[in-house]
Amino acid sequence: MKHVAFLPETYRRIHKLSCSENICFTKALEKMLNTAEAKAMTQDVTATWIDRIKAEPVGYASYNLFKKTTKPKTNGNTKGIPSKI
Fold first, then answer.
1. C-alpha R_g of the chain
2. CA angle 9, 10, 13 (to 5 degrees)
3. C-beta separation of 77 from 83 below 8 A
4. Could you tell me the maximum CA-CA distance found in the chain, to the nearest angstrom?
5. Segments in 1-85 forming alpha helices (H)
6. What are the beta bridge partners of residue 78?
7. Which DSSP string corresponds to 36-85?
């Protein structure tokens, strides 16, 4: 359930339509919103962040899992300090 505040003029227009067609207030509001102009203002489906992620192209990275990685040899140096001082 949603609570919405209308301007008094808008409320009177919706109420007048609901009384003239003998339908409930929400049906009258839906009928007023179901126009080509109202549909042109907004999208039919709301895009969520998951939809945006799914729409992005996926890139793949390849790794050689069997190749040994070796650290560069420092010849006994620690943080650039030579072993002989």
1. 33
2. 90
3. yes
4. 99
5. 8-21, 25-33, 36-41, 49-55
6. 81
7. HHHHHHS-SSPPPHHHHHHHSPP------TTSPP-PPP-TT-BTTB-S--
- Phi, psi for 9 (deg, rounded to 5): -65, -40
Q: Residues 64-75: pLDDT tens digits?
A: 667 776 666 656
Asked if residues 25 and 32 have their Cβ atoms less than 8 Å apart, the reply is no
pTM for the full model?
Answer: 0.46
* HSE, side-chain direction, 13 A CA sphere, residue 53: 3
List, in sequence order, every residue forming a beta bridge with 81; answer none if it has no partner. Answer: 78
User: pLDDT, tens digit, for every residue of 17-75?
Assistant: 999 999 999 999 999 988 888 878 776 666 677 777 777 777 766 666 677 766 666 56
Q: Tell me the two tokens of residue 29.
A: 């509001």
| Structure token digits, residue 49 | 């962040």
